[in-house]
Design brief:
Layout: H1 10-18, H2 25-28, H3 32-55, H4 82-90, E1 96-101, E2 107-110, H5 111-116, E3 120-128, E4 132-140, H6 143-150, E5 158-167, E6 170-177, H7 178-181, E7 186-189, E8 191-192, E9 195-196, E10 206-209, E11 221-227, H8 240-245
Parallel strand pairs: 1-11
Antiparallel strand pairs: 1-2, 3-4, 4-8, 5-6, 5-11, 7-10, 8-9
Bound molecules: ligand MTE and molybdenum atom (MO).
Length: 253
């Protein structure tokens, strides 16, 4: 994705493509400069189109035999909060995932609600920028289904993930654009290797966004929020590590 800047989401891409509409071409095409402009625009359109198509490709999936024997816990490995601790002990009977923000029908879903939705099972490799990887099998509903059920409004450009944990005194959060939000391998996972997600790996719910690096895979998920922009969230860079250490917002692999 080097051709497109990190914050250029699907909507701006589409707006750019729409702006190349034929109507504007009649006058400027009569001059050489106009012709150059059109050729440049066409080349840009081709590049943009190819990039968008490549972002919809699937991440590699592996077999059961490829699973890592242990899946390291990294960053927060628990949540320092009484309600969370009581819920872990009881198997998360009262845990709720909210779907809110720029949606017509906000949702509040229990673990049972999430398990009752159509499930995707995917064995994928998690790559952390700190230099380790692990292969695991994740199960959960696709984010696209929840966004459709909540009826995301046209003004939404990004999906924000709210987490229960704090790290270095800050609440962890992340965000992605609509291309990744609707990617078939973007799921809200509740199981790892066929078991409820262990506490260290983000119990009871964590994101799997398989075309991006480890720090985008928000653990201890409490809410999914559709937003027009993330300028006013945290320090405005779209995620915890983006704010704290200047990591790239778009962490595509
Ligand atoms: N809520 C939350 N999500 C998080 C983190 C975290 O500290 N808190 N760490 C991130 C990083 S850097 C990585 S590599 C993975 C680690 O996932 P794991 O603990 O299952 O290995 O979670 C990501 N998501
Ligand atoms: Mo990471």
């Amino acid at each position: 994705m080097s051709e497109i800047g990190p914050k250029l989401g699907r909507r701006s891409l589409l707006a750019g493509i729409a702006a190349l509409g034929a109507g504007a071409c009649t006058k400027i095409s009569e001059s050489d400069a106009g012709q150059d402009l059109i050729e440049t625009a066409e080349a840009w359109h081709r590049t943009a189109h190819r990039s968008l198509a490549s972002r919809q490709a699937l991440a590699p999936e592996y077999s059961v035999a490829d699973r890592s024997p242990t899946f390291k816990g990294n960053g927060s490995v628990s949540v320092d909060d009484g309600f969370y601790q009581q819920q872990v002990a009881a198997g998360f009977p009262d845990w709720k995932l909210e779907v809110r923000g720029l949606v017509e029908k906000p949702l509040s879903l229990s673990m049972a609600d999430l398990r009752a939705l159509p499930q995707r099972v995917q064995t994928t490799r998690h790559d952390c920028v700190e230099g380790w990887s692990a292969i695991g099998e994740w199960t959960g509903p696709q984010l696209s289904g929840l966004l459709d059920a909540a009826k995301v409004k046209k003004e939404a450009n990004f999906i924000l993930f709210r987490c229960a944990d704090t790290l270095y005194g800050r609440v962890y959060y992340e965000s992605i654009d609509m291309v990744d939000a609707y990617h078939p391998q973007t799921i809200i996972a509740h199981a790892l290797n066929g078991e409820p997600i262990p506490q260290k790996n983000g119990a009871p719910l964590r994101m799997r966004i398989e075309r991006q690096l480890g720090y985008k895979q928000a653990k201890y998920l409490t809410a999914i929020e559709a937003v027009a922009s993330f300028d006013q969230v945290g320090d405005g860079n779209g995620g915890f590590w983006e704010d704290v250490a200047g990591y790239q917002w778009y962490a595509g692999i």
